[in-house]
Amino acid sequence: MERHIDASAEIADDVELGTYVHIGPGVVIGKGSKIGNFVVIHADTVIGANVAVSDNAVVGRRPMKAAISTLKEVDLPPARIGEGCIIGACVAIYRGSKLGQGVLVADLASVREDVEIGKFTIIGRGAAIENHTTIGNYVKVETNAYITAHSVVEDRCFIAPMVTTSNDNFLGRTKERFKFTKGPHLKKGARVGANATLMPRVVIGEDAVVAAGSVVTRDVPPRKIVAGSPAGIMKDTPEEQLVEMQGYAED
Known about the structure:
By secondary structure, this protein is mostly beta strands. 0% of the residues lie in helices and 31% in strands. The chain is built from no helices and 33 strands. The radius of gyration is 19 Å and the shape is globular.
């Protein structure tokens, strides 16, 4: 058998299905969508119209739990993929995630459970978006960036390749860490350069810039450029680079 499609799945008449596709119970796939070869779509996943899912992608899977994992078993809602999204090859999108209109998730990226991604955002090749994270509209998360659990990235932010974020100042030791687990919060228009590291709970202000290779250990004020390890304020963000100066259409 080249495909397995559960009888309860609702698939629009014009959907294109590749070979060796597995579609679980309760799945909904909208008009004009294209599902590649060897794709697995898990139970109850909702895929909007005109979505492209590339070869070997897995959508709507449940998270694994190791024997010593601190994750709690929870009932997750179905994964929801918005209209016009593009899902790359070998991408893993977990149950409980929600992608807005026109999101691109590039090859080899992963989007964990309880993640919400706003419209027209780009998640780059090999990037990892961990659980309980919110990413806004028109965000760019570039190749191999790591966004830790419990982070917030607001609209129009830019995160360069190999950026690393952290949410645990205790490095996995003591139960006290659970009271303080929280990733960074990037305010609207914040930008982070390649190979920068953002420590737990730091706030990167609106239109602030973190220079490449910096280590951010404290909050960054709005419209400031910081650099170094630990990062310190260098100068103001140039006025012509501010979000309000870019002429973007209102959302």
